Amino acid sequence: MQKDKITANGFTLIEVLIALSVLGLGIAGAAKITEMGYLQVAAAENYRRAATLADSHLNTLHGTINLDAPYQTGRYDEHFRWELWLVPVSYEDVFPPDKNLQLSSSRLRLTPPGRLTDKVVARRADLKLWFEEDTRSLDFHTLILSEVSK
Questions:
Q1: Residue range 75-107, pLDDT digits in tens
Q2: What value does the CA radius of gyration of the chain take, rounded to a whole number of Å?
Q3: Which domain, by its residues, includes 26?
Q4: What distance in Å separates the CA atoms of residue 85 and residue 70, rounded to the nearest whole number?
């Protein structure tokens, strides 16, 4: 009778250990989920910053194409480095001929690569932006038009 009274008043050691183990696993799982959320927020911020830097870089190129340097490279800061290729573009690349449209030969303009018209030079800017660890990169592309210098 004495033995039943002692065990009925509390938990056994094994029950306490199992309860603490389950509680610990729950806390560890919640901490891991929180950590993953913070990492996703940091990654999204890096992508946003990279897109802002690339947009700013490509906007500065408009009207200032350096034809002598079709490949350029550099760093924004310790977190991002970039590579830029300027590829010549012809009129047909920008405005492909429509197979269904009948054009007279006098209206068909053939221009050399990089020369969109007599007064405009076209380049496709391909910007590759590398993250600090050099394992991830983002690609950005735009068409840059500038006047022919005389």
A1: 988 889 999 998 888 767 766 766 555 544 444
A2: 31
A3: 2-97+106-147
A4: 6
CA-angle at 81, arms to 40 and 67, nearest 5°: 135
pLDDT in tens, 20-53: 999 999 999 999 999 999 999 988 998 999 999 9
141's CB contacts (< 8 A; 6+ apart) are 124, 125, 126, 127
> Considering only CA atoms, which of 121, 70, 71 is closest in space to residue 91?
121
Q: How many CB atoms lie within 10 A of CB 49?
A: 15
CB under 8 Å to 103, separation ≥6 — which residues?
Answer: 97
- Single pTM value for the model: 0.62
Residue 78, helix vs strand vs coil? coil
Amino acid at 68: D
Among candidate residues 137, 139, 141, 138, the one with its CA nearest the CA of residue 125: 141
Number of domains in the chain: 1
C-alpha dihedral, 111 to 115 to 120 to 121, nearest 10°: 170
3-state helix, strand, coil in the chain (%, to 5): 40, 25, 35
